Amino acid sequence: TERERERDRETGRERMGLVVPRLWRSLLLLLALLQFSGLSEGRKSWRAAGRHKPDYRRAQGLSARDRNQAPGWSQQHQAGTAAATEEESFTLDFTAVEGNIDNFMAQIKSLAQSLYPCSAQKLNDDMKLYFLANSSVTCNDGTAAGYYIKESKGSRRWLVFLEGGWYCFSKENCDSRYNSMHRLMSSTHWPHSKTGTGMLSSQPEENPYWWNANIVFIPYCSSDVWSGASPKSEKSEYAFMGALIIQEVVKELLTKGLENAKILLLAGTSAGGTGVLLNVDRVAEQLEELGVRGVQVRGLADSGWFLDNKQYQRTDCIDTISCAPTEAIKKGISYWNGVVPERCREQFKDGEEWNCFFGYKIYPTLRSPLFVVQWLFDEAQLMVDNVHLTGQPVQEGQWNYIQNLGRELKNTLKDVPAVFAPACLSHEVITKSYWLNLQVKGVSLPRALHCWDRSLQDGARNNGKGSPKGCPIHLTDSCHWPHCNPTCPTIRDQYTGQEMTVIQFLMHMGFDIQKMAQQQGLEVSKLLGMLSSGS
Q: Which one of the listed residues 224, 302, 378, 453 is annotated catalytic?
């Protein structure tokens, strides 16, 4: 009956009257906490919303008793009524919680979820798959290229990630790749959604500084280190369109809010990391050409800073793994119809564009800010250099080669302002769950990236002078053997799967700890302690 329906509506209003004040008071308490904390890392502007804003209407629904108890509500209400469109600024300070930022961000997200339509729904953390509208830009086999996205309405920060996964440079090894790594050449079996991990995670406890950004994952299905511009044709069974895929994705993201972005971070791992080096300036130029000029484009290259050094043992260039990096790229750039940035291409003679695939050669030509994350003993680099650590005792020549590789790599990074280079034997890190634990000189990788972010903000105000005090951004390990950093990822015996300590790892590789101690003039116990601590 009408009377019963009216009673149900009244009951609903009473329930909301209990829920909303509690949530509102929680939010006010959070704001009070932030104000109380002191000076801010950055200023946030809050506009008095006036009667047309939903927050104002919710506040109007508070009872007189709740309004009196809510700290500062009366003053805020009066100020909002007097000047509804006036901008008010106050400082938010995170200094007091910086030591426990993960927990703090988790509480904020929990509060945000509690305010989400009466806590009835869960925020969706998955990235959703979209295929490109331009069907002429495809994966290797001609299937549609695409991207995954997790939108964060209201955020002006965008993280666009390029997946890695080696490459192929001839019909023979592309055929082999198609049979063994089908997903990296075709979109046929891509899932409809994907959950981000590491820096792509939407969980603040796993991704403390970028969890609330718009996150885009571009699957790697072009096998060309994101450099190709060649469609499938009668002459070629495969399309190589990595560079064009990135351009098409950026175009489509403009319709999803990218045009209003403040920061676009183009990130990638392995071949995707090298893809960042090749495409970060091109993306910046593309946005300018499309009339989008308010976006600062930056690059983050993880495990994509390779050396064109001499192999430990020379082998014929038959497949991706045995082929020296320079020879593979020379063959590939021709096969893919690969394109490199114009400023880099001008530095080399015709036919030598392959040089631009190596970080230390292309870096001086880049205009966009770049952060390099690179293991000093990258497993992929050692693999193409034909150094295979298979559990057999390492020969003295191999050990000298490995140590020299770390020194060479570090030398190529000395003029790069923003670097995180741990002395570990590994490959890729920013999408790993353990990326939070890794440290160089006591600074974690997320913290270093945050410092870099702050340095770019401060640089815009201070004519680009250095990094913020107490916030280093050039971090390289000083020791010269694999896993001398105690925060390196766990090493496992490839046969038993059991975890190994650094000492066990060195002994596993055939090192005589006692002989090492004698050579260093140390007691064995002291050397063991130094190895364990990473000294």
A: 378
**How many Å apart are CA 222 and CA 239, to the nearest integer?**
7
In the numeric block, which tokens belong to residue 373? 């994350």
Q: How far is CA 121 from the centre of its chain?
A: 28
DSSP string, 308-321: -PPPSS-----STT
Q: Are strands 370-373 and 263-269 parallel, antiparallel or unpaired?
A: unpaired
The active-site residue out of 152, 202, 223, 270 is: 270
The values of phi and psi at residue 211, to 5°, are -60, -30
Nearest CA to 193 out of 130, 139, 135, 143 is that of 130
Other beta carbons less than 10 A from residue 192's beta carbon: 8
> How many angstroms separate the CA atoms of 178 and 249, rounded?
24
Express each pLDDT in 164-191 by its tens digit: 999 999 999 999 999 999 999 999 999 9
| pTM across the whole model | 0.75
Q: Which of 427, 474, 483, 508 is catalytic?
A: 427
| Six token digits for residue 359 | 């970080």
223 is catalytic: no
251-301: pLDDT as tens digits: 999 999 999 999 999 999 999 999 999 999 999 999 999 999 899 999 999
Rounded Cα gap, residues 36 and 44, in angstroms: 15
Query: From CA 308, how far away is CA 385, in angstroms rounded?
Result: 9
For 92, other C-beta atoms within 10 Å of its C-beta total 17
Closest to 158 in 3D by CA, of 105, 204, 200, 205: 200
CB contact at 8 A, 221 and 214:
no
pLDDT confidence tier of residue 118, bands split at 50, 70 and 90: very low
Active site residue 316: no
Distance CA 329, CA 352 (A): 10
What is the token pair recorded at 500? 């190994």
Tell the residue number behind the tokens 């990296």, with chain if given: 184
| Rounded CA separation 283/289 (Å) | 10
Does residue 450 have an active-site annotation?
no
Q: Which two tokens stand for residue 429?
A: 């890190």
Close Cβ partners of 334 (under 8 Å, ≥ 6 residues apart): none
**Residue 409's CB: how many other CB atoms inside 10 A?**
24
User: Residues for the chain: how many in total?
Assistant: 535
**CA end-to-end span of the chain, whole Å?**
80
Q: Which residues of 347-384 are buried (b: 16+ CB within 10 A; e: fewer)?
A: eeeeeebbbbbbbbbbbebbebbbbbbbbbbbbbbbbb
* Count of C-beta atoms within a 10 Å radius of residue 467: 19
